[in-house]
Amino acid sequence: MSHTAHIRSHRKPRRSASTLAMRAGVAGGVLSTLAVAGASGSANAAEPVTQTLELPTLTADLATQAAKSADAMQQAAANYELRAERDAAAANAAKQAKADLAEAKKKAEAKKKAEETARRQAAERATRSADRTTLSATAGAGSVSVSTSTGSSTATGSAAAVISFVKAQVGKAYVSGATGPSAYDCSGLVQTAFRQVGISLPRVSQDQSTAGTQVSLSNLQPGDILYWGGAGSAYHVGVYVGDGMFVGAQNPSTGVVERPLSYDPPSGAVRVL
């Protein structure tokens, strides 16, 4: 027996190969896990997390709807423009119609005024003609004599100035409502003539026929105012200028004329001088 047989061996007992393999596998797994975790942590720390949104894919239906919406908007814009053009045209038409109406109204009023003037002048001529016939018949019967044999034929003073003025107007136009200097109506001529000598007469023939002292037609003096129609309702006036003549603004056809009393015998006379 060996002298070392009783001493225990210092060599560790052998482990089995399977045990060693298992331990090695476990250790390797742990190391792998730690390595992956470390790498993941490093990556997360180095780069920020980005969230990606997926946009919907434009399908054929969506494209068709978009095209229809664009067409609808274009059509709406066209309709709006057309409506604006129609509104502008309607406004212009209304403005023109208003102007045409005003012009037509103006022409109608002018026509009406001309017709009224023509009717009045026709009535005056008719009345004057009737009065002339009546006076002629009366004169023939001897009740009225249009004569100046007893009156003065020579004008003096203010009467001469009035006569000179009215004779200077002979040949000028007759215009209803005119008082000179280029045109007159009957009462406008008489009023303007007497204004030359400082006498203010009423404007219309009706009032002028009562503005002075009534005188007989057989006792006329130059400067007397002749009237046709009734005193206070006369439709025509003139100025006696002597020698059986008078001056008056007769009508638009003759204007201011000098005529004998027999041409248009007056109804009466007034004296203001």
Structural features:
about 270 residues, alpha+beta, endopeptidase fold (from Nostoc punctiforme), 6-stranded antiparallel β-sheet, two-stranded parallel sheet, about 50% helix
The number of distinct helices, counting runs of at least 4 residues, comes to 5
> SSE string, helix = H, strand = E?
HHHEEHHEEEEEE
Mean pLDDT: 77
CATH topology grouping of one domain: endopeptidase fold (from Nostoc punctiforme)
Largest sheet: 6 strands, antiparallel
- Report the count of strand segments: 8
Radius of gyration: 63 Å
What is the share of helical residues? 40-55%
Structural class: alpha+beta
* Assembly category: single chain
CATH class of one domain: Alpha Beta
Biggest β-sheet: strands ordered side by side in the sheet: 3-8-4-5-6-7
Which architecture of one domain would the CATH scheme give at its second level?
Alpha-Beta Complex
Contiguous uncertain segments of 5+ residues: 33-46, 134-152
* Amino-to-carboxy terminus distance: 203 Å
Shape: rod-shaped
